[in-house]
Structures
1.
Amino acid sequence: QVQLVESGGGLVQAGGSLRLSCVTSGIIISIKTMAWYRQAPGKQRELVAADTRGVTDYATSVKGRFAISRVNAKNTVYLQMNSLKPEDTGVYYCHLLTTSLRSYWGQGTQVTVSS
């Protein structure tokens, strides 16, 4: 059973930083993509950042402020978030996609940015 566990969320003032972590457990044969999504209240879940075998992609709204990094040996992914804004508030979810296109989600971690 594959599980993803996020941590690192919390309350921070605008301009501050947080680092999210996502640790996976279980047997994973081959990972294609690890990514972070977020969902703000009343909005759809959106892609924040993704790492597909070393190639990264970011939402326009976070480019230059957020950085995704991945430790393949540990099946772990991080999201460093700097210069946080109130509009970054939401529940952040870790996502894993295998090469056989199996999809896994974490439970989410709350990030709240106060103005």
2.
Amino acid sequence: EVQLQASGGGLVQAGGFLRLSCEASGFSFGDYTIGWFRQAPGKEREGVSCINNSDGRVAYADSVKGRFTISSDSSKNTVYLQMNSLKPEDTAVYYCAASDDFIHTIVLVTTPLVRVLDMDYWGKGTLVTVSS
């Protein structure tokens, strides 16, 4: 059974930081790209970042460049999203998802509307709330 378990969300003040984790199981971790997406209240789901587990290539949405860092630990089948200098507009439910197509995922990371069918597997989200 494929599972993607996102965790690490919480309440933080503006300027603070959080680290999200996405633990994967049930598929070949090294053959997939893991992406982070988010959905704020009343808004469409959008891309945040992604990492190609086979070669480490990464991509970021412009809104998080320089503040967020994605990384992967293949020994733990886990992808991390380090979020620094958080802003109230970063408040959202954050989801991790997997795809076997890195280029496709890069396109999604810069897309303001991401549909569930756009990725192969999705995890349940974790809520990040940034207070001003």
3.
Amino acid sequence: QVQLVESGGGLVQPGGSLRLSCAASGSAFSLNDMGWYRQAPGKQREYVALITSGGSTSYADSVKGRFTISRDNAKNTVYLHMNNLKPEDTAVYYCHRYATGHWGQGTQVTVSS
């Protein structure tokens, strides 16, 4: 059974950094496009970043230049490096595997002084 397990969330001050990880089980991870989404309280889930099987990336305008998505196919893991965090980045962050439609359980990121 395919599983996605996120980790790395926490409380950070504005301007700080975090690295989120998403470990995937199952086969053919390297062939799958992977994404990060987030959901703030009272808001709909929104797209954050995507990395294709070939390593191409795209980002939401709100995080462009601050966040970087990457992947390590040997570890079946996708990462989200977040820099210069802002209070408006506070949300539960979810990993998504497009080919199977699976979502992780989410990891909370709180940006506050």
4.
Amino acid sequence: VQLQASGGGLVQAGGSLRLSCLISGRTWNSPDMGWFRQAPGKEREFVAAIRWNGDNSYYADSVKGRFTISRDKAKNTVYLQMNSLKPEDTAVYYCATRQGSRIISSMIASQRAYDSWGQGTQVTVSS
């Protein structure tokens, strides 16, 4: 499976962006999708995740209420709608999946649960 993230850019604080992650290849084999981000000098951290065949979604506390993850099965695409952006949201955003099996809920926010990653898209929020 291949993941291609897009939609990043430069936005002022309080603005919005929508990231997209196009999944190609064995898409049926990727039941769960996640978004992570990595700011300069910091470790990569969990942002949000969604069950591909269900309605469950998960969010980091820092983005809850501002970000929304969704998926369009017909387009093999996962989205991350980001509203009320803050300068601390500045980072490279990555989409990820685990091939072949679902991720247990307790591991959904762990990078180790994902084995396929997109190339990342830069989001910069100016103050």
